[in-house]
Write a structure and sequence with these properties.
Blueprint: H1 3-12, H2 19-24, H3 29-37, E1 41-45, E2 48-51, H4 58-68, E3 73-74, H5 76-83, E4 95-98, E5 109-112, E6 121-124, E7 127-130, H6 132-142, H7 145-157, H8 163-171, H9 179-191, H10 196-207, E8 213-221, E9 224-233, E10 238-243, H11 251-266, E11 270-275, H12 276-281, H13 283-299
Parallel strand pairs: 4-5, 10-11
Antiparallel strand pairs: 1-2, 3-4, 6-7, 8-9, 9-10
Helix pairs in contact: 5-6, 6-7, 7-10, 8-9
């Protein structure tokens, strides 16, 4: 076997190779079969293998898919994970690709039988992948509601995409799966809140079907303006405030916020405060806390 050639193939494909590639390097068919049977080779997906002990992640899965499905484009969440490994995506157990003319799905590979237009393709570390914005939009349409909301929050909070680019990409999918959800995200992105964090909070409240709230409400006591609050549940007299990183950028701002909060509490309102990390990392706890407080207030 030509060890140098085999090592070069593995290094250029994130450690992934096929049985055919190993045989082309001079390994006998019997030796290849024995390597699989004895666990020296471990299957990643489809025709793709790695040597035992090789770490397997999204890059290895993507290469296995590319080597298994002719003219595959790494698609949706799998493409997004390649663009940014820190993207908050659920563990899918399969690699998602787009390809035409494929009759059945290989092992651990899910094929979307669609054509990805050339202007939505990129080359990334030797792989043909869906471009980042298109991958984000298709992921939001394809994932379950909770995972999609978490991904949308992450994208908005980090300026991953502008509203105009997001909206134009969504517009090109008017008859595709998940378009109603995408249209709702577009509306929230465009006009739903005074800040990115409020966009995220609104998305979580809508997903949990929590109703009875208004945004950016001016609360008056007597004839004077007391405060403008982020989210108000009028019936429950509950205020939800979303604190950004720069919420208290000075001593004066900190004091003003405390004076404002004390006046609201004295007027009979309850206040729950949440941070960016609460919304992005713990969206269900955010919603649970609000529901719990509303129930308590209603029971009084």
């Amino acid at each position: 076997m030509d060890g140098n050639k085999f090592a070069w193939i593995c290094s250029s494909q994130a450690g992934v190779f096929t049985r055919g590639q190993a045989i082309a390097c001079g390994l006998s068919s019997k030796k290849a079969t024995d390597s699989i049977k004895n666990g020296y080779w471990q299957r990643v997906a489809g025709r793709g293998f790695v040597l035992r002990g090789t770490p397997v992640g999204i890059a290895q899965g993507a290469w296995a898919a590319a080597l298994s499905v002719p003219r595959a484009v790494i698609w949706g969440p799998s493409a997004l994970g390649l663009h940014d490994p820190q993207t908050p995506l659920p563990r899918l157990g399969v690699i998602l690709v787009a390809a035409e003319g494929v009759m059945r799905d290989p092992v651990r590979i899910k094929v979307r039988r669609i054509a990805i237009p050339p202007d939505e393709r990129d080359m990334l570390r030797g792989l043909t992948v869906q471009r980042r914005t298109a991958a984000l939009v298709d992921s939001l349409a394809w994932l379950d509601n909770a995972s999609a909301d978490r991904l949308f929050a992450w994208a908005v909070a980090r300026d991953v995409v502008t509203h105009d680019l997001f909206a134009s990409t969504v517009a090109g999918r008017a008859r595709s799966r998940g378009h109603c959800r995408l249209a709702a995200y577009c509306e929230m992105f465009r006009a739903g809140a005074a800040s990115k964090l409020e966009v995220i909070a609104h998305a979580i409240l809508r997903r949990r079907k929590i109703t009875g709230w208004d945004t950016n409400v001016s609360i008056r006591i007597g004839s004077g303006l007391l405060a403008r609050v982020d989210i108000l549940f009028r019936a429950a007299k509950l205020i939800v405030e979303i604190d950004g990183f720069a919420a208290h950028s000075s001593k004066e701002a900190f004091q003003k916020d405390r004076t404002r909060q004390n006046a609201l509490i004295a007027a009979g309102y309850q206040i729950l405060r949440f941070t960016w990390d609460d919304l992005v990392s713990r969206p269900d706890q955010f919603a649970d806390a609000i529901e719990h407080q509303i129930r308590n207030n209603s029971a009084r």
